[in-house]
């Protein structure tokens, strides 16, 4: 039997690794028939919220975005969403971006459907329209090579427009692929591994990570990663973008 006093999860002032073994469920008003795990939140010093929701067949998420926009991504399974006068059944790899001030209703999930959410208080930008509701999906044919390295590909899921103050990208590393440099930047990240294994360096600490693990990187958390194992490693990540650095 494994010793239950051990975990790969780590929480520091500037970064966190959250592995599923330590999840404790939260009750979120309007989200029923599901377990919700709040992975990243302002309580840890973050300016985004990241949750993972696992639904039963009776699951239902009903609510209204207020100050925060919410990006919902189907990690596995399927679910029907009604928002902004539209209705659509989302499958694994598909997403809906729900802008501020929108009602949303998710119903009819497959048993065990898992959703990832990123929330951030929306900062409007004068002269640029607030984004509307948006559907989309993971599509490897829309993932260009990153920094001239054939082992790395990034798909940007949201339009690269100044109206958006967040980016959500899917980053695929072929086996042996690694970041070409240690990044040191003002932008914050929330991240979920969708596939494979990797070594992540955060503030000069080294962590083995794998599918199902989440990472929080505060602004200026130094970061580097390399894929390990025989299959590509893939993560979806959030980044705050496009606003004046106050
Ligand atoms: O967009 C980014 O900053 C990205 N390259 N960072 C990361 O994957 N840790
Ligand atoms: Mn980065």
From TrEMBL:
PANTHER family the record matches: (S)-UREIDOGLYCINE AMINOHYDROLASE
Record-given protein name: (S)-ureidoglycine aminohydrolase
Boundaries of every Cupin type-2 domain copy: 70-112, 170-235
SUPFAM superfamilies registered for this protein in UniProt: RmlC-like cupins (SSF51182)
Domain of life from the UniProt record: Bacteria
InterPro entries, per database record: Cupin_2, RmlC-like_jellyroll, RmlC_Cupin_sf, UGHY, UGlyAH_cupin_C
């Amino acid at each position: 039997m494994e010793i239950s006093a051990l975990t790969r999860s780590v929480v520091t002032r500037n970064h966190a690794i959250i592995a599923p073994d330590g999840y404790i469920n939260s009750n979120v008003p309007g989200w029923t028939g599901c377990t919700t795990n709040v992975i990243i939140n302002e309580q840890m010093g973050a300016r985004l919220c990241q949750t993972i929701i696992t639904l039963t067949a009776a699951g239902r998420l009903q609510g209204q975005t207020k100050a925060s926009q919410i990006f919902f991504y189907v990690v596995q399974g399927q679910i029907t969403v009604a928002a902004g006068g539209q209705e659509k059944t989302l499958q694994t790899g598909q997403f809906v971006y729900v802008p501020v001030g929108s009602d949303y209703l998710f119903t009819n999930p497959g048993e065990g459907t898992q959703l990832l959410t990123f929330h951030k208080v929306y900062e409007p930008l004068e002269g640029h329209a607030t984004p509307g509701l948006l559907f989309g999906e993971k599509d490897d044919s829309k993932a260009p090579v990153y920094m001239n390295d054939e082992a790395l590909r990034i798909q940007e899921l949201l339009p690269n427009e100044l109206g958006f103050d967040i980016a959500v990208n899917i980053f695929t590393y072929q086996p042996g692929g690694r970041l070409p440099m240690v990044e040191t930047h003002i932008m914050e990240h929330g991240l979920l591994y969708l596939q494979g294994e990797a070594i992540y360096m955060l503030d000069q600490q080294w962590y083995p990570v794998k599918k199902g693990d989440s990472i929080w990187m505060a602004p200026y958390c130094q970061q580097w990663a390399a894929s390990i194992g025989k299959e590509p490693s893939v993560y979806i990540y959030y980044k705050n973008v496009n606003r004046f650095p106050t």
